[in-house]
Amino acid sequence: xxxxxxxxxxxxxxxxxxxxxxxxxxxxxxxxxxxxxxxxxxxxxxxxxxxxxxxxxxxxxxxxxxxxxxxxxxxxxxxxxxxxxxxxxxxxxxxxxxxxxxxxxxxxxxxxxxxxxxxxxxxxxxxxxxxxxxxxxxxxxxxxxxxxxxxxxxxxxxxxxxxxxxxxxxxxxxxxxxxxxxxxxxxxxxxxxxxxxxxxxxxxxxxxxxxxxxxxxxxxxxxxxxxxxxxxxxxxxxxxxxxxxxxxxxxxxxxxxxxxxxxxxxxxxxxxxxxxxxxxxxxxxxxxxxxxxxxxxxxxxxxxxxxxxxxxxxxxxxxxxxxxxx
Length: 326
Prior knowledge:
Mean pLDDT: 81
Strand content: 25-35%
Distance between the termini: 107 Å
Number of helices: 7
Low-confidence stretches: 33-37
Largest sheet: 5 strands, antiparallel
Oligomer: single chain
Order of helices and strands: HHHHEHEEEEHEEEEEHEEEEE
Shape: elongated
Radius of gyration: 42 Å
């Protein structure tokens, strides 16, 4: 009991000392005690919460970014003398190049045809730079067929060669020269036209018509020549007939029973009225070479040039615009 009385006495004595010292330094509960444990007004005033200025949405972010960009702008207004003229700089990445290079390797890219339903070939300019031809390939999903058209455009000869080719547009006028595969209702037949090259005098145009049955693949390639003097197109079927006749008579091989095809290379550089054609038979991984052949543009005479050599001089007469990165 005496111990409890002693503890109470000591507590009252300590309280007396504290109260007696208030004149020297006043005791503030909120400052000295409560502010260390509770969010009082005085504590909040001295210790404000950190402000989060980060934008809450992307719209807020773009609004703040645009505002900062506008504040940072210090662009003087343009001042041009009255006689000043801004001259167009030609794109150095676009050049006028020979078309059939390497010979016979150019073909229509049909990767996006089924999605786009229409694919235009590159325009090929005549040797005198007065005309341009191109082909259009169409896909018809209802019949799963492909057809093609050949068009001619006359170029504006008042412009420079590069400009007349670069500014050529179908709105200036085009003429349909030939169409194939657009009138057939047979399912799964593909007929595409690809320009081989102009003749050296610009009077004729060589084309290849590829015919395929989509479940089975390519059937055959026809060599065509459009004559601008007569306005007529001729299928040079004589070269395919000559190849079949030779292998039947000389080697007892009936090509009609096998998959084989021709690959037109272009106009013969040594005889500008004739076209060089390669022939191959499908024999597994490595096709069998059936010879290099030549045929004149009238189809009067097709002849075997070589059974072993494919290295012949092919003229490159047409031109086209080509990007440097193509």
